[in-house]
Amino acid sequence: MLKYKTQGTCSREIIFDIEDNTIKSAEFVGGCPGNLIGISSLVKDMDIHEAITRLEGITCGNKTTSCPDQLSNALKEYLNASFEIA
């Protein structure tokens, strides 16, 4: 399990698990529960690169980022091997 501290969103962190470049789970701490459970369900078993492509750059209201965008950042950090193990 890996942890990513989010920035600029209602959620505070993302706890996720990757196996063979596939997202096995993603859990958001804080934020809008229904939407974030939905995002977690949609990315389950998705290739990391596909998830990054789909989620990167999504904004929330007048913010410059969003929870999906933060997940794409977490996945990019994972690929660059700069993450915290939970």
Automatic annotation (TrEMBL):
Enzyme Commission identifier(s): 1.17.4.1
NCBIfam families xrefs: TIGR03905_4_Cys
Catalytic activity annotation: a 2'-deoxyribonucleoside 5'-diphosphate + [thioredoxin]-disulfide + H2O = a ribonucleoside 5'-diphosphate + [thioredoxin]-dithiol
Pfam families (UniProt xref): TSCPD
Residue span, TSCPD domain: 3-79
Family: Belongs to the ribonucleoside diphosphate reductase class-2 family.
GO molecular function: nucleotide binding; ribonucleoside-diphosphate reductase activity, thioredoxin disulfide as acceptor
Identification of the protein by name: ribonucleoside-diphosphate reductase
GO biological process, alphabetically ordered: DNA biosynthetic process
InterPro entries per UniProt: CHP03905, TSCPD_dom
Keywords carried by this UniProt record: DNA synthesis, Nucleotide-binding
Source organism of the structure: Acetoanaerobium sticklandii (strain ATCC 12662 / DSM 519 / JCM 1433 / CCUG 9281 / NCIMB 10654 / HF) (Clostridium sticklandii)
Protein origin, superkingdom: Bacteria
